[in-house]
Structure formats: structure tokens, C-alpha cells
Amino acid sequence: MNKSFKVLFVVLFLISTINISAQHTYECPVCHGKKTIPAVCTNPECHNGVVYCEKCDYSGTINQRCDACEGTGVIAKVKDLPCPVCKGEKGFIKEKHEPCDKCGGRNGKVPTMQNGQKVYIDCKFCKGKGYTVTKYKAACRTCGGTGKKGQETYYEKCNICQGSGSVTKTCEQCDGKGCFVCPTCQGYGNISITCERCHGEGVIHTAN
Known about the structure:
Blueprint: H1 3-17, E1 23-27, E2 36-40, E3 46-47, E4 50-52, E5 61-65, E6 74-82, E7 91-99, E8 109-114, E9 117-122, E10 131-139, E11 148-157, E12 166-170, E13 179-181, E14 190-194, E15 203-207
Antiparallel strand pairs: 1-15, 2-14, 3-4, 4-13, 5-12, 6-11, 7-10, 8-9
């Protein structure tokens, strides 16, 4: 028996007598080989993957008090009441009669010579009236020349809120959508965490 045959015989004998432990792998029964398991989203505001906007109550719009009418729905305005005497004209146009400077008011006639005789003809300045007319504006004594007798307050429907007292605006938080994707679970409603059983390997190791 040569030397090499003896060495081979010794090795086979040791293998048959010594129990060598072997490692075997099995699919993880928890994650089923997917390495992660689903869990509930940790964001407290997440509702099945959607974060609802509490500010607009999921509607996308919010109602704010109308600043123009201060929430009353009407606008108070003041208008001037015209003077009942001058009708708001502040005064009256009056005429003043004064004797004509040219004819001296003598029945509106002026002397002239015609064919060597003295005759009287109509004054061309006053047109035979004997007086001239001067027009002037006299202030109304009732209103003191203001044309007003006072002021009156009246109300009109606010054209901004259309009488509702509030205006509807797009919610700035959700940009009018009413909801937006949950930043934690990205809209899936759950998150994936590493499997504690297989430590993210997808398989478990057992020793035989």
C-alpha cells in the first residue's frame, strides 16, 4: 500500500466518523422573501395615504370676512340732499335794470336832426327801452349758496361679497385641492420596514 493511498483512506475515515455541521437557508415565513413588511404610516395626519387639509375642511376653499363691508354685506354711502329752493344750483340768475347811459332813460328816445328838424328816435343802446339789463347770480339764502340742505346715509349691497358678508378664497395650504399626498407614506397608506425575523435578507439561516 503506497503512501498516497494511505492518506486518502485516513481522510475518508475521518469524514465518516466526524459530524460536520452544515448551514441551510429557508424563505422567511414573516416577509416571505420580500425582505420588508408593511406597517401603518407613522404620520398621525395621514388618512389612507392622503393628508386632509384641516384649514379648509377638505373643501379646498375658505370663507373670510369681507373687508369692504366688514362682514355686513352692505356698504354705507352718504349722498348730499339738494336745496329745495335752488334745486342744488346754489343761487339764481337775476336781472338788474339800470337807466340807459346814452338816452338817460327818457323813454328810450334820443334827439337827432333830420331835414333840419329835431326828431326823436329809439336809442340804439337800450333799443328804445330806456334801461339796460345786467344779469348776475344771487346766492340762495336758504342753503347759504352751498346748494345742499344736508346729507343722507343710504346702503347698497356690497359688490365684492354680493351681500353675503364673506368672500371665498382658495385655500393656500392645499392650493384648492382639499388634500395632498402624505409626505411619509407617499400616498400608499403604509410604509415598509425591515423584517425583524430575517433582518432584511428575505431568508433565515438554520444549522443542521
